[in-house]
Automatic annotation (TrEMBL):
Signal peptide span: none
PROSITE patterns cross-referenced by the UniProt entry: COF_2
Name of this protein: Cof-like hydrolase
PANTHER family, A to Z: PHOSPHATASE YKRA-RELATED, PHOSPHOSERINE PHOSPHATASE
């Protein structure tokens, strides 16, 4: 079979609803690699949040921060940090409105305040080994920050969207919104990577379940939505597989003919 490249989202795609890696998924990834295919991760997470998963699956190629930090075979291919002046202004605006901010680079994440319930409530759902980042309000200074988290309830991000035009705001939790460079996405990350590797779109596959996967599934030649995906995600996919907890990855790879 001609060599293909397959991108996998993490939460609700590679990992099940309990943030566990199904045995069938681990087997499927191994079989893909044995057949000579390129396997990559495409996630909104920071690299330090899925280091163990990369090691378990032996995947050294990934798109993180929804396309802002791309690594190919262990080497950084592309970086797109947040504008520093705009981030400083956003922080000041957030402080005025009592909205906490977390700064994330490829190595760590820090909070501009010591503790807040909104931070703990949302970060705890990621199950990354801690529930609240350490306090360092100057972390964004002198570093490249690829994503921030703004902690507020639905609708409270509207003034930020109006004021900070260099950023995109994508809600992922009832108390938290991702802050990303304007126009950045998994789809753009995939475009950058396949241009480097020389893949045609027809040989590019992607699996996802969330709203931040829509552009990715539309862009690739073969977009597969998980059975547990939201309806709007399923609508843009070429195929819909089973729930992640029902061997959805293995079944999906069989559906598209990559595994038998």
């Amino acid at each position: 079979m001609e060599r293909k490249i397959i991108f996998f989202d993490i939460d609700g795609t590679l990992l099940d609803h309990d943030k566990k890696l199904p045995a069938s998924t681990k087997k499927a990834v191994r079989l893909l690699k044995e057949q000579g295919h390129e396997v990559a991760i495409a996630t909104g997470r920071a690299p330090f949040m899925f280091k163990d998963l990369r090691e378990e699956l032996d995947i050294q190629t990934y798109i993180s921060f929804n396309g802002q930090y791309i690594v190919l075979n262990g080497e950084v291919l592309y970086k797109n940090p947040l504008n520093k002046e705009e981030l400083q202004d956003l922080t000041a605006f957030a402080v005025e409105h009592d909205h906490p901010v977390v700064y994330m680079d490829h190595e760590d994440m820090k909070s501009n305040i010591e503790f807040h319930d909104y931070i703990e409530s949302s970060i705890s759902t990621l199950k990354i080994g801690f529930t609240h980042p350490h306090h360092d309000p100057t972390y964004f200074k002198g570093r490249e920050i690829y994503q921030s988290l703004l902690f507020c309830t639905a609708g409270e991000e509207a003034p930020y969207e109006e004021k900070f035009k260099k950023f995109d705001f994508i809600r992922w939790h009832e108390f938290s919104t991702d802050v990303l460079p304007k126009g950045g996405s998994k789809a753009r990350g995939i475009e950058t990577m396949i241009e480097k590797l020389g893949f045609d779109k027809k040989d590019v596959y992607a699996f996802g379940d969330g709203l931040n996967d829509i552009e990715m599934l539309e862009f690739v030649g073969n977009g597969v939505a998980m059975g547990n995906a939201e309806e709007v995600v399923k609508e843009v996919a070429n195929l819909v597989t089973k729930d992640v907890a029902e061997d959805g990855i293995l079944h999906g790879l069989e559906l598209v003919g990559l595994l038998k």
